[in-house]
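PROTEIN DESIGN WORKSHEET
SECTION A - STRUCTURE
LENGTH: 867
TOKENS:
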């Protein structure tokens, strides 16, 4: 704090006053008055800290006038005490100030002495202060362990130490119990115990912390036991004995138990717990003594068994002869099921005309029938039924054997029960059972049914006697059922595979029987062998197998399509002497055997560069070979139209050649179109020599397009196979899209027919991706067919699994007996490193596109053997 100062002009006036006369005035007295506290009060502050309010004093003379400009001096009493910002002279109003920093020892009384002097006059004032610690540097419990009683609050004593070593009781301390299940501590430091034991508590004050133990105790003062007497009416019965221990506060001592002991051993036993469990052991009486220190209580225990139940040792007794006897025994039990020794049991019969009973439980049979015999002990009773029934002594059979010649055949067993004297017992029931029910079963009336071949016995039983008749089941053959074990109508297996045939021999009831039929293979020789399980596939064809056993013969018609055998998984590249100069790669090949026996391959060649239309365009070219491997390029066959938006404006692909119907020569059906305007359709050209071709006007197989736009509804022409059926109708299998609305962009193989080779009508799909497994379920197209054997055709076609990532195009095969319904066989050629397209089959020679990964598109060939 800054010292109070006055202006120079005032100081000059005071100086003049001092010079001219006595500045103090009458009496020469200087009085100092405290402006901060009254003179007699004690100032309180923190050790080593400045008081919050500066000390302000006023100096006046005997007339109460301010003493101005007097010298001020300060004197301190207190260790490490000091003043700051002290005024050295009094102000014009006689006041002067100082900041008092108290000493660090809180145990001593601190004083501040102010002296004001002017001339020969002086005045003094003494102020007293007490340093009270408030800043906590450390805190600790006074006792390491504080003992408290349950439910009686006790104050935990703690002391704090400030930074100067002064000890004091902190006013802002926080207490925490480390286990409130035993002890809780409130904000004032009072501990309240809930359970006996030791618990750690902690105190926090300022930056200090400490912990100590609280030991909670109880002292037992009294013991109460309830009830005063325990009654038991059964051995093993359990009663609960409540014992309450109370402390000097009247609270229950929950975790202590007295010592408990019966005064007479062997009557009851005691299990310690809360409450005590007392269990009866034997009949008698005893006291149960409970002791804890000098305290003792007693409870009486009385065990007296009472009959709660009586039970016969046997029930539902049957006597099989008149005057027959048996002894019934009954036992009395208490409520817990323990037997009562020497208890008297009384017996009685409800019908003495049927049975009588003596006092010792002996029962005597009087006539057929039944009666109830009772046993009583006290108020408890039990009963048992006694039945008198004459027993059958023997069973007599009318026949000793029975033979059944078919499964489920039925025969009858006749049996008569008789007593010991040989008389029929009409009321006695007779039961039947089979010694082996897997061979023959029998009904309750003796009707026997054959189940399996073999011999067994049918046992007739009445009373305690049995008789057995021998039964033989021996099936005699009556019919033979035979069938091919193949899920599809055409058996497609490789040569050498097992041809599985099921042969079942049946008896007159139509049940299968054992026996090994002989198999006679048909004249077609599709399979060889002589047993149903030992036939082997040899070749394709229609055949009839004959199965014979015991004079019965069954014929089985079969269609066998022996699996085709390819010379290579991806074929071999063909050799060509030259290639069209305006193209680099072949596409969409078709093949046929010409009249000179040469193999002709027709294919499209697209230009290597796009022309002014922005598209590559293709003409149809031809190769000729005499061996199916080495080919000679013979030139261009047909060319595309110059206008890109002409129906034949972009390219020509795929073809099939038919003998011309209305004139000598040939007619070629080929696919043409563009991906800009019309899409792909099938057109025709004619030739008289099979070499020079002239296009015919008109569309043969339409894609449904009526205006020059792309795409069309149902593009058509992705491979073609044509034939003429027995009626003279021309038919063609073509890669197309099904005629559905809205159109679906899925290639499949459809059928078309024509009476004149010019006007063709769509019949519908014959092979779709839905018939394929997933690896060929994207698109199917490019069919080529061959008659393997009369009336059995095989189709080779292209299938892929687009748009599956990494999709592959492979060559598949299917077989048919009518060229309408086709049965999938599987992959014929294919590889995960190549794509194969556009197969065309001539005899055993297959021509197709092979496009290896990283390689060029090339023509390839493979030999396909169809046994």
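SECTION B - SEQUENCE
RESIDUE ASSIGNMENT:
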């Amino acid at each position: 704090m800054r010292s109070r100062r006055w202006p120079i002009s005032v100081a000059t006036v005071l100086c003049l006053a001092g010079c001219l006369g006595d500045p103090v005035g009458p009496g020469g007295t200087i009085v100092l008055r405290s402006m901060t506290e009254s003179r007699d009060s004690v100032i309180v502050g923190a050790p080593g800290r400045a008081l919050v309010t500066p000390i302000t004093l006023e100096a006046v003379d005997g007339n109460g006038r301010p003493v101005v400009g007097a010298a001020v001096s300060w004197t301190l009493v207190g260790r490490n005490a000091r003043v700051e910002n002290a005024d050295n002279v009094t102000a014009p109003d006689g006041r002067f100030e100082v900041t008092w920093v108290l000493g660090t020892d809180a145990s001593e009384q601190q004083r501040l002495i102010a002296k004001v002097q002017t001339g020969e006059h002086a005045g003094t004032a003494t102020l007293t202060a007490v340093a009270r610690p408030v800043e906590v540097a450390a805190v600790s419990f006074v006792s390491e362990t504080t003992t408290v009683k349950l439910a009686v609050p006790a104050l935990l004593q703690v002391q704090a130490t400030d930074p100067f070593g002064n000890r004091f009781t902190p006013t802002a301390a926080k207490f925490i119990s480390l286990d409130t299940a035993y002890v809780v501590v409130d904000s004032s430091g009072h501990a309240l115990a809930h359970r006996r034991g030791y618990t750690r508590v902690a105190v926090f004050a300022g930056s200090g912390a400490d912990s100590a133990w609280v030991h909670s105790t109880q002292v037992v003062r009294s013991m109460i036991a309830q009830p005063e007497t325990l009654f038991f009416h059964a051995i093993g019965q359990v009663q609960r004995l409540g014992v309450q221990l109370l402390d000097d506060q009247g609270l229950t001592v929950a975790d202590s138990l007295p010592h408990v002991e019966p005064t007479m051993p062997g009557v009851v036993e005691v299990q310690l717990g809360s409450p005590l469990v007392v269990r009866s052991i034997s009949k008698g009486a005893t006291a149960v003594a409970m002791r804890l220190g000098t305290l003792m209580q007693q409870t009486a225990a009385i065990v007296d068994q009472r009959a709660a139940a009586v039970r016969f040792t046997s029930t539902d007794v049957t006597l099989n002869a008149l005057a027959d006897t048996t002894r019934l025994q009954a036992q009395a039990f208490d409520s817990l099921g323990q037997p009562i020794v020497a208890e008297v049991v009384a017996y009685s019969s409800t019908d003495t005309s049927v049975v009588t009973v003596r006092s010792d439980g002996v029962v005597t049979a009087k006539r057929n029938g039944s009666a109830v015999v009772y046993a009583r002990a006290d108020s408890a009773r039990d009963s048992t039924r006694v039945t008198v029934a004459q027993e059958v002594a023997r069973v007599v059979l009318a026949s000793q054997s029975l033979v059944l010649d078919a499964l489920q055949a039925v025969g009858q067993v006749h049996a008569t029960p008789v007593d010991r004297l040989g008389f029929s017992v009409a009321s006695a029931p007779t039961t039947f059972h089979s010694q082996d029910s897997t061979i023959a079963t029998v009904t309750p009336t003796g009707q026997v049914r054959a189940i399996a071949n073999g011999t067994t016995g049918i046992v007739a039983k009445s009373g305690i006697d049995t008789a057995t008749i021998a039964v033989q089941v021996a099936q005699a053959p009556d019919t033979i059922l035979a069938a091919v074990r193949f899920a599809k109508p055409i058996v497609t297996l490789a040569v050498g595979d097992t041809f599985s045939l099921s042969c079942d021999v049946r008896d007159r009831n139509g049940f299968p029987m054992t026996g090994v039929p002989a198999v006679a293979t048909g004249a077609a020789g599709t399979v060889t062998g002589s047993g149903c399980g030992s036939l082997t596939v040899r070749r394709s064809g229609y055949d009839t197998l004959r199965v014979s056993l015991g004079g019965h013969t069954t014929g089985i018609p079969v269609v066998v399509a022996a699996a085709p055998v390819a010379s290579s998984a991806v074929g071999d590249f063909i050799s060509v002497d030259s290639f069209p100069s305006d193209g680099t790669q072949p596409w969409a090949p078709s093949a046929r055997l010409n009249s000179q026996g040469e193999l002709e391959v027709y294919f499209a060649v697209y230009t290597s560069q796009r022309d002014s239309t922005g598209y590559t365009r293709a003409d149809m070219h031809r190769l000729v070979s005499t061996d199916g491997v080495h080919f000679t390029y013979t030139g261009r066959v047909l060319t595309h139209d110059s206008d890109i938006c002409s129906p034949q404006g972009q390219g020509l692909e795929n073809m099939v050649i038919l003998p011309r119907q209305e004139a000598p020569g040939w007619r070629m059906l080929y696919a043409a179109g563009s991906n800009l305007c019309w899409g792909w359709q099938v057109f025709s050209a004619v030739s008289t020599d099979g070499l020079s071709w002239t296009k015919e006007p008109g569309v043969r197989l339409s894609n449904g397009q009526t205006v020059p736009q792309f795409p069309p509804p149902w593009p058509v022409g992705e491979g073609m196979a044509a034939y003429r059926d027995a009626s003279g109708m021309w038919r063609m299998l073509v890669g197309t899209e099904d005629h559905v609305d809205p159109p679906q962009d899925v290639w499949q193989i459809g059928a078309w027919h024509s009476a004149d080779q010019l006007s063709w009508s769509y019949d519908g799909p014959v092979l779709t991706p839905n018939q394929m497994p997933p690896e060929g379920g994207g698109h199917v197209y490019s069919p080529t067919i061959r008659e393997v054997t009369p009336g059995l055709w095989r189709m080779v076609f292209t299938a892929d699994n687009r748009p599956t990532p990494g999709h592959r195009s492979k060559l598949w095969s299917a077989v048919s007996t009518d060229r309408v319904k086709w049965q999938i066989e599987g992959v014929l050629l294919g590889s995960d490193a190549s794509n194969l397209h556009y197969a065309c089959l001539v005899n055993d020679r297959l021509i197709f596109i092979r496009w290896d990964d990283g390689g060029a598109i090339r023509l390839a060939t493979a030999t396909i053997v169809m046994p």
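SECTION C - NOTES
Residues 1-21 have pLDDT under 50 and may be disordered.
Residues 138-217 form a domain with the Immunoglobulin-like fold (CATH 2.60.40.60).
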